[in-house]
Amino acid sequence: MSDELQLPRAIRVFVSFVALLRANGFAVAPEQTTAYLAAIELLGPRSMEAIRLAGLATLAPPPERRATYDRLFDIHFLGSEAVDRAGAEDEEVVRLQEEGRGEDETLLADEANESGLAAARAEALVERRFAASATGDALRKLSREAPARLPRRRGHRRMRARRGPWADLRRTLRESVRNDGEVLRLGRLRRRTRPRKVLLLIDVSGSMKGRTDDNMKLAHALSHAAPNVEVFTFGTRLTRVTRALRLKRREQALSAAAHLVSDWDGGTRIGDALQAFLAVPRFGSYARGAAVVIVSDGLERGDPSALRDAVAKLSRRAWRLSWLTPLAAGPSFQPQTEALIAIRRFVDDLVDGGSTAAIVSHVLSLGQRKAA
Amino acid sequence: MVVRGNIVGIDSPEALERALRTAYYLADEGLATAAYLGLALGKPLLLEGAPGVGKTEAAKAIAAVLGRRLIRLQCYEGIDASAALYEWNYPRQMLAIRQAGEETIDIYGETFLIERPMLASLRAPDSTVLLIDEIDRADQEFEAFLLEFLSDFQISIPERGTVRATERPVVVLTSNRTRDLHEALRRRCVYHWIEYPTAEREARIVMMRASSVAEATARAVVAAVGRLRREPLSKAPGIAEAVDWAEAATLLHERGARWPDAFKRSIGVALKDEEDLTFISGRLDALIAEAAA
Questions:
Q1: Using one digit for the tens of pLDDT, what is the confidence trace for A116-154?
Q2: d(Cα A217, Cα A196) in Å, to the nearest integer?
Q3: Half-sphere exposure of residue B46, counting CA atoms within 13 Å on the CB side?
Q4: Helices A209-225 + A250-260 axis angle, to 10
């Protein structure tokens, strides 16, 4: 490092920029600040653009918050007045196109500050307060039994076993060293298993209103009972609430989720929501090899072809696709809505999702089921 | 903070950009800056982006520019240390023990050690570039293990002691972002998100990679591919697909196919998913006609 560092004045502007980023919810470690200063020194006093790029490379703002970074940079270094929060960006919300395909407009609202959400919206922002009632027993059962009963997949690592397809040469060799190179017993290895991903897609539209509170509680319980659970809500939009639900205390987690989701109790466009889900590569790949559980009544307005295509695609990606609908109480259930009839061919289970107990018992039975 | 301002005569991002161009890689300013800083600060370079934007190619080009061998470690779910670091050659050790009889032998000698990519790069840090490809596919445990490796650049082999790198190896990590990487890993690296190139840059890439393709063809293909990427496809065409498509269409044209038709018949090298093809088929003519205009 040069003498620059003994002159705090010269670097103050850069260090205070880092502080500004942190204040806006960017995680920047001290070592990154050091790297940033070193980078600026390396590039020399060339241009603002070099300083911006040095920051991008060393402070590593997540790509979906790039616009926020740029705006803060402009404010800090260029004194830009254009503090326009209205057109802010949003990381976990995909807005469904209002007319036709390919016109997807992504809204942005980062989880760190909600001010981005306060933008002009087509929908009215309805915030939901979760009633603090207890769904009780079923959720406790889920938390208790999920670790042992959720589906597992074969991992790549091998572990010692009494019986198994491979010889454990490492252990055998060690033992044979003790016996002058005689192999007395051949250790075996088998693959260990790992928990499978679980992807939970929850319909929060108006027709599901009565179930939404309990479904969110269930999602929270499941997120904490299993290591890799992803949760999305959909109504007129698709929102990823996984991170909010990771908060340990239920009330906190649910209110964090309530802040993120802005289409509670609104309309439904299940097909478009699932298409949007599949169109984001990062989201779509969550479904690969996962146990996918959709909780929705399947009341789709209009033409169900978008829904059918999306479900078909999802079912090919998933290890198993379950559709839980409140309309399917009772074993003699026959799908009546056009949408449910259209997707029946593609789902592996079309079962009762009318109560927390029913959903819990289905989720816990997934481990005994086979891949579709 | 190790600062090596000058890496083999490359003293600025622009110089690196020029050097990469000689290796047939067109980097934009952001990537050139990040790569230059990674090299100069001795930090790993983490490249994220959609599949097919040229992340792995960037690593290959960097290795070519530095005149070093590229060691590639392809990650997968369940990858573990024995695939990434080293492994002992057990059958050979057993044979050696039996042959030795009464003599003492060192069964943990060099001859019995199988080098895996990470160990290989530690032992030859000045002549290799380590590419850790698709780190997002590996699981959390491996990421934690990698973190340790990237902070100290050392590996301890219980039977032999610790192997340390004599200098910081050049490491490039890529991720398709199928899951979020650990913050700590991103902090340790110099980070760059690679976007799809602009139409202008992509047309130049196509012409550079496929010399037989005429400029008009390249532009038309790039425009068409750009439109395809805006559709909700399960596998959007990457840069390699654009290059292949331009080459395939040119080939068909030379064999007598007419222009729009040549594009249409060779769509299979750009879209490789039956569903995507069905989805687009109705509008393909219009899309190609628009792009070729």
A1: 333 333 333 344 444 334 467 888 888 888 888 888 887
A2: 21
A3: 29
A4: 120
**Any CB–CB contact under 8 A between A8 and chain B?**
no
CA A145 to the chain's CA centroid: 23
Contact list in B for residue A102 (CB cut-off 8 A) is 230-232
Name the 3-class secondary structure at A252: helix
What is each CA distance from B2 to A35, A101, A303, B39, in whole angstroms? 10, 51, 61, 10
User: Distance between CA A226 and CA A244 in Å, rounded?
Assistant: 16
Question: Greatest CA separation found in chain A?
Answer: 80
Q: Tokens for B161?
A: 């002691």
Q: In degrees, to the nearest 5, what angle opens at C-alpha B29 toward C-alphas B23 and B33?
A: 85
Q: What is the CA radius of gyration of chain A?
A: 26
What is the rounded CA–CA span in Å between residue A93 and residue A82? Answer: 24
CB distance B8 to B66 below 8 Å: yes
Structure tokens at A72: 């803060």
Task: Tell me the DSSP string of A146-174.
Answer: HHHHS-EEEEEEEEEESS-SEE-HHHHHH
State both tokens at B154.
């050392």
In single-letter form, the type of residue at position A236 comes to T
A157·B234 Cβ contact <8 A: no
B2-47 pLDDT tens trace: 556 456 678 899 999 999 999 999 999 999 999 999 999 999 999 9
Give A304's DSSP letter.
T
Residue that is written with structure tokens 């196919």 in the block: B257
Count Cα neighbours of A289 within 13 Å in the Cβ-side half-sphere.
Answer: 13
Q: How far apart are CA A344 and CA A333, in angstroms?
A: 12
Indicate the residue of A29, A170, A276 with minimum beta-carbon distance to B90.
A170
* B147, burial (CB in 10 Å: exposed 0-12, middle 13-18, buried 19+): middle
- Cα gap A205→A89, rounded to integer Å: 24
Write the residue in A38, A53, A57 that is nearest to B1 by C-beta: A38
Residue B8: both structure tokens together: 């083999």
Give the predicted TM-score (pTM) of the model: 0.70
Q: How many A/B residue pairs have CB atoms within 8 Å?
A: 128
Nearest by CB: A54 against B37, B93, B178: B37
Q: Which residues contact B18 (CB under 8 A, 6 or more apart)?
A: none
Q: Is the dihedral of CA A76, A81, A83, A87 positive or negative?
A: negative
